[in-house]
Write a structure and sequence with these properties.
The structure is a single chain. The protein has one helix and two strands, in the order H-E-E. The chain has 115 residues and is mainly alpha-helical.
């Protein structure tokens, strides 16, 4: 009876040691994942700041263009309608033309304090 109790205690000790090793292994993995999450959160914060700084430069059109078609060779994607900008006709404006350098007036530089 004594030897059976000793064998059972040895078995329990081995199982407890295995569970302790698993616990250490999982704790190490959790600590690694926490470090990775911290890095990702920092990168996410930087990306949000970058996006926020660009938000005022984005188009705030009321209606976005829509794609029609199934995207297949027979029916490729196409724009539902032409882009229309508020306050402008349906076509693009011609580009502004500047005067050639030979005809442009030269600025007059004066000495003294700036205005």
């Amino acid at each position: 009876m004594h030897t059976a109790a000793v064998r059972r205690d040895e078995y329990v000790d081995k199982e407890m040691d295995k569970q302790h090793e698993r616990l250490i292994h999982h704790r190490h993995k959790i600590e690694m994942m926490y470090g990775r999450i911290s890095v990702l959160e920092e990168e996410n914060f930087e990306k949000r700041a970058l996006i926020d700084s660009m938000a005022d430069k984005l188009c705030h059109c009321r209606a976005s263009p829509r794609l029609v078609g199934s995207g297949t060779r027979e029916e490729p994607f196409a724009m539902d309608d032409e882009l229309e900008y508020e306050g402008s006709p349906n076509s693009y404006h011609s580009t502004p033309v500047s005067t050639p350098p030979s005809e442009a007036p030269l600025p007059i530089l004066t000495l003294g304090r700036p205005c």
